[in-house]
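quick one: 4'-deoxy-4'-aminopyridoxal-5'-phosphate bound model?
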Amino acid sequence: MQAKRMTDIPFSGIREIFEECNRLEAKGQDVVHFEIGRPDFDTPAPIKAAGKQAIDDGHVYYTSNYGLLELRNGIARKFADENGLEYDQTDEIVVTSGATEAIFVTILALVDPGDEVLVPDPHWTYEPAINAAGGSVVPYRLNPEDGFQPDEASLREAVSDDTKLLIVNTPQNPTGGVLNEAGAEVVRDVAVEHDLLVLSDEIYEKIIYGSPHRSIAAMDGMFERTVTVNGFSKAYSMTGWRLGYLAAPTELIDPIIRLRQYTSTCASSISQYAGLRALKGDLHKPLVDAFAERREILLNRIDGVPGMSCPEPQGAFYAMPTIPDGAIDAESFVWELLRDKGVATVPGTVFGSTGEGRVRLAYSISTERIEEAFDRIEEWVKEQ
Ligand code: PMP
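yep, here:
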């Protein structure tokens, strides 16, 4: 009964874990949630106030398909000041219902059946959109030994005459990796040599601990081929507001905006006014400081578990350590740890083959809960 294109669009790999968490919690077991990739903070008060004010002021109508001009203006200024990128607010920026929609419309507007899309391995869930477009996913390896930088040989091998689009994500979900200068140059060289389009997912831009974020579109030869995706969900803890955006030269925006008219029409007007407030000042700072503290504790505790190790995550709120001594593989470790100890994690294999022997830990939980989770992981290891 379903359309053929739905064959390759499965339920999310994390869903079964969520369901098991619900079952355990219904039975009264305490579960530590290392599996959920969302900040646990409230949205900063000034942003919430701006949303309420938008309702009171009667901003309750459709906005332009591109988004509120004032918000696009703020986004254009952000790109200019922080990323060295000059986008025209009138026709090079589109506000979307979350980065998810930005990614979906970009892929659907640019990828044809038979096209190949290069996707990092491990990676966040870009495949459903690629499959819906009739394209195929071709993974390129990120090197755990090198802080999850793109492996040049693997990336070059992945390119073919059918390659249309190259996806990069920095800071990265699921590894916490951040593209360094050498890594960015590899991506740029391959994209330019093979004349590829690039989708750069920068949703974790502001959650970064070491060297500053670099937008790949700002590199030589990249502006004209790159769609930069970003959003408000992570840095301002606004996942429920559904607000993201994309920016690209008009030639790329043209098919994207035509499609976007028929998806969600425009992002929520109320969320857009809230987003406008989020762009003013440094409201993300306390949240990023809290993540930095959690990261320190997490890394210390990972160090104390025999067999567990990972490159220091440089951004986002994820780490992808190896599984501890005594664990057979990622999948069985995740299930045993959840059922025996009530610690929910995600097997690395959900994100690609490079995730074999690793788990993703989302440290978007309190420091006390991180400590609690690791006390239980240590107990599990002792019992093996
Ligand atoms: N990209 C990445 C890498 C993500 O981790 C997420 C959310 N988990 C998104 C995009 C989508 O974010 P949103 O739709 O909430 O803006």
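The pocket of 4'-deoxy-4'-aminopyridoxal-5'-phosphate is lined by residues 37, 98-100, 124, 169, 173, 201, 203, 231, 233, 239, 244 (CB under 6 Å).
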